[in-house]
Specification:
Largest sheet: none
InterPro entries: TPR-like_helical_dom_sf, TTC38
Order of helices and strands: HHHHHHHHHHHHHHHHHHHHHHHH
Radius of gyration: 22 Å
Shape: globular
Protein name: Tetratricopeptide repeat protein 38
Keywords: Repeat, TPR repeat
Number of helices: 24
Distance between the termini: 69 Å
Family: Belongs to the TTC38 family.
Number of strands: 0
Structural class: mainly alpha
Strand content: under 5%
Length: 466
């Protein structure tokens, strides 16, 4: 560990965020993990996040916050379910037992409580606890970031923005990780449609830290939502050297780049990014963000009439092991795209039935509670669409338009389902649906004028018979 760059026991105390351990190494490793998480970047000089997690358990095997950050990160990654993964479930249990057997601070106790709630799928309650921490400790970056990610999974756009706004005045430029708040705040602003302000704040972040991949990502979103394709392409290209080193977010930033190409009908360029970056990285990392981006990209290309058959089969190898996870509805819907695209009826059926089973007795699991009203109908709509039953797909999707935000993700990611609804409406035999399709395209054009993709949909809609 580099002695100078990470905070020891005393440094954490000085910031009024004391950690219950006497090991300076453990404190520094905690800081190293937190820093890599905030930067979306594994730092090889410290052994990456995984290396630091192993080292922190050696430095102090009973360090509660060491467990909180390592177990919390695994849970927030949504790559495995504590319902099925014994090791992850027992890591949560161990964290709770350790906390109960030690005299730790009220703040640390709340951290443990939040991680436990999150592990049960109770995202709203977990966020309440993180917010409780932030009331007294507004510079607790771990609480802020865990809450930020959880709001994202719930599609809780206003809380995601306001959570950061509330703590901003308490942060000072000399504090470690200060500049990264800009990207976090910017993302909340753009998800609540304050595009100009979001752009300004993200650019402030990049002026302080040019390689802040989350601020780059925020700018990419603004250009996507405003359909300013040329600006988006120029920006991603001019900054590529800065952001491609953030291994945890690079694939997602490439995904944004590919969306601009799809807007422009440059399908080969989009496929090139899919093959060389998004698919390749998702296969190597197994990270959920990378995987869902791969699913989404293929689905969008297919809606544009591009043949991606063989790629679906390859991607199925990555998604199929997650069929039974059911950690988030957002992930489930993306896995379903792949099993449908690959004509893997068994996996599609299994995913739907598993979700239906969990929806019967969801308990505290917020995602399973939403499965009945949103997740399952959306899955069924995709299955109907896939079988060419477009009017059924419209009947299922249209009533959910304004509640779809609850599946989580960003406006840009969820736009896929808006497009799916428009395609279904236009392909439906039902005259009313075709009319609806035209209305939806007009509405889309009003929100993001000058979108080439919307223009193409408009042409299609007008070609339909009156």
């Amino acid at each position: 560990m580099s002695e100078s760059s990470f905070r020891d026991c005393q440094a954490w105390k000085d910031e009024a965020l004391p950690l219950s351990t006497s090991s300076n190494d453990a404190c520094k490793l905690y800081d190293a993990i937190l820093t890599q998480y905030v930067k979306w970047k594994n730092d090889d000089t410290v052994g990456g996040i995984e290396g630091c997690i192993s080292a922190i358990q050696t430095a102090d095997p009973n360090f509660v916050m060491g467990y909180v950050i390592s177990t919390g990160l695994e849970l927030v990654a949504t790559t495995s379910s504590p319902r099925l993964d014994e090791r992850l479930a027992s890591a949560v249990k161990r964290t709770v037992e350790l906390a109960n057997s030690q005299d730790i601070s009220p703040r640390e106790k709340l951290h443990v409580k939040a991680v436990e709630l999150f592990s049960h799928g109770n995202y709203p309650k977990a966020c309440e606890v993180w917010e409780e921490i932030l009331l007294d400790h507004p510079t607790d970056m771990l609480a802020l970031k865990f809450a930020h990610d959880s709001y994202f999974y719930m599609g809780a756009q206003l809380p995601m923005r306001d959570s950061v706004a509330r703590v901003l005045p308490h942060w000072k430029p000399h504090m470690p990780l200060f500049s990264y708040l800009k990207g976090q705040y910017s993302f909340g602003l753009l998800e609540t449609r304050f595009y100009d302000q979001a752009l300004k704040v993200a650019m402030e972040g990049l002026a302080l830290t040019p390689d802040d991949a989350w601020s780059v990502h925020s700018v990419a979103h603004v250009y996507e939502m405003k359909a300013e394709v040329d600006k988006g392409l120029n920006f991603m290209e001019s900054r590529e050297k800065d952001w491609q080193g953030s291994d945890m977010l690079a694939s997602h930033n490439y995904w944004h780049w590919a969306l601009y190409f799809i807007e422009r009908e440059q399908y080969e360029a989009a496929l090139q990014i899919y093959d060389s970056q998004v698919f390749k990285r998702s296969k190597a990392s197994g990270a959920m963000l990378d995987i869902v981006d791969a699913c989404s990209l293929l689905c969008r290309l297919e809606m544009e009439g591009v043949c991606v058959k063989d790629r679906w089969r390859e991607l199925l190898h990555i998604t199929q092991p997650h069929t039974d996870d059911h950690v988030t509805l957002f992930n489930d819907l993306h896995f379903l795209m792949v099993s449908l695209g690959a004509n893997e009826t068994g996996a599609s059926q299994r995913l739907l039935e598993g979700l239906q089973e969990l929806a019967k007795e969801p308990g505290d699991n917020q995602q399973h509670q939403l499965a009945r009203t949103i997740g399952i109908p959306m899955c069924k709509a995709m299955m109907e669409y896939n079988q060419g039953n477009y009017s059924q797909a419209v009947a299922l999707l249209y009533p959910l338009r304004y509640s779809m935000v609850d599946i989580g993700g960003s406006d840009a990611q969820r736009d896929l389902f808006n497009q799916l609804l428009i395609h279904a409406a236009m392909k439906s035999e039902n005259k009313e649906h075709q009319k609806l399709g035209r209305c939806l395209v007009v509405e889309r054009d009003a929100v993001r004028p000058n979108s080439p993709l919307t223009h193409r949909l408009m042409q299609k809609a007008l070609a339909l018979h009156d």
